[in-house]
Amino acid sequence: MTTFEAGNITLHKVREHVWEIPPEDGMRVPARVFASERLLEEIADDKSLQQLKNTTHLPGIEKYAICMPDGHQGYGFPVGGVAAIDAENGCISPGAVGYDINCGVRMVKTNLTYDDVSGMEEELVEALFDAVPTGLGGGGIVQGDRDTVDAVLERGVDWAREEGYAVKSDLEHCEDEGVRPDADPSAVSQKAKDRGRNQLGSLGSGNHFLEVQRVTDVFDADIADAYGLEADQIVILIHCGSRGLGHQVCNDYLRDIEQAHSGLLSKLPDKELAAAPAGSQLAEDYYGAMCAAINFAWVNRQLITHQTRTVFADVFGEPWEDLGMELLYDVAHNIAKKEVHDVDGEDKELYVHRKGATRAFPAGRPEVPSAYRDVGQPVIIPGSMGAGSYVLCGGEQSLDISFGSTAHGAGRLMSRTQAKDEFWGGDVQDDLRGQEVYVKAESGATIAEEAPGVYKDVDEVVSVSDALGIGDKVVRVAPVCNIKG
User: One of 57, 261, 306, 408 is an active-site residue; which one?
Assistant: First the structure.
């Protein structure tokens, strides 16, 4: 197959797993999809390809807009999308970041093996569910006053370290050491701060989760050793974001940008791509507010890590330090960052929008923590509750073909409404229990929405990333127990 027809959109095969929509009808650059033929058919089932085409109309976009193999329809911009836009002459778009700013994942290692946990799954899942707030609305580990929220927004994980919720190595193994220095708490509305004040240290709802996992496959023993991972090891994966605060930041700035920059908006094919021109006051304010929300999300995951360490110490009767509960890495999914990339032989500062996409820098890039700089950044790709997840390493080709990015997960196949029509939470829970996976959630509806059948094949998503050299397979992990909102 050399072309793929999706309604009125034709994609041309550039090479294996790379499909391109040539520029037409006002597109500033081509659009590219990284996918196998099967995944491309799934991506074409919704509005993802049209949204990707629309993205190419943004001023200052460089090279091409990208959809990753886990791509699916989002708000204005496809989830699984990457767009790198000139930070001096382009724009920044809240819709190309998303509502859950710095939705991301972190993996915590242990020195436990599967045999150490076997038989204790129910006790562990109940204890974790009791210790980590889940679900919609309020309820967090820390009830923050105004000064606390401002400190979190400004200082990120360093605030958690000073308050006793983190240790120095947590900062050293987090993207950007857990703080965006461009954060501006004053650019975050009081309404946003009020929404986040009682949610510090909570999973939230939807696809957010905390999952105990075991390493089942090692693909690259040398990099796995550098990451401190080995077969049969128990690890913990935490997936959540900036909660109501990040959602409100996105909403606030979308509305403000729509009004203040209506001229630019009128030239875009979708108002959900509302963008502020680089250098404008709203672009600066949104960037500062977004960076503050990024810090909030990192602290949110750090507080959940603290609770998780406490639970494991209680259940296994040893201090968490003796259980080897060190952070492997924390990486953001929904983010726009100023990064310098080579564009046609010239270094340019770009707003790299990654919405449902993961940074995947290879060895040598200075932003990679020193512990991993010689091998490349860890990349964590969660799958469904029944399919397992992956740890990858930033691939050698990622800077050349994807602005240092890869997929962020399995990607949804169906909406939450459709999932609840097709699955019954109790049945899903029983099926998973038959596979020795213990799941606890606020409601059966949540479990139905997140049933394994709702998601794409994570193995195939990761295989595309690996084949393209943008994220190389290191280990695969399988779920043991899982809590959800």
Answer: 408
CA distance linking residue 332 with residue 349, whole number of Å: 19
Is residue 408 annotated as part of the catalytic site, yes or no? Answer: yes
The conformational region for residue 137 under phi > 0 = left, psi -120 to 50 = alpha, else beta, is left
Q: Residue 463: inside a domain, yes or no?
A: yes
Report the pLDDT value the prediction gives residue 425, as an integer from 0 to 100: 82
pLDDT digits (tens, 9 = 90+) for 414-440: 787 887 888 888 888 888 888 888 888
> Is 271 part of any domain?
yes
Among the residue ranges 23-27, 93-97, 251-255, 444-448, the one predicted with the least confidence is 444-448
Q: What digits encode the pLDDT tens for the residues 55-74?
A: 999 999 999 999 999 999 99
Report whether 389 belongs to an annotated binding site. Answer: yes
Question: Is 71 assigned to a binding site?
Answer: no
Confidence (pLDDT) at 123: 96
Q: pLDDT grade, residue 335 (50/70/90)?
A: very high
Domain residues for the domain of 404 are 3-87+103-413+455-484
333 among annotated binding-site residues: yes
384 is in an annotated binding site: yes
Q: Is there a domain that residue 433 lies in? A: no
The pLDDT of residue 140 is: 86
pLDDT at 403 over 90: yes
Q: What pLDDT shows up at residue 361?
A: 98
Q: Number of structural domains, the chain?
A: 1
210 marked ligand binding residue: yes
User: Would residue 181 count as lying in a domain?
Assistant: yes
Q: What is the CATH number of the domain that holds 402?
A: 3.90.1860.10
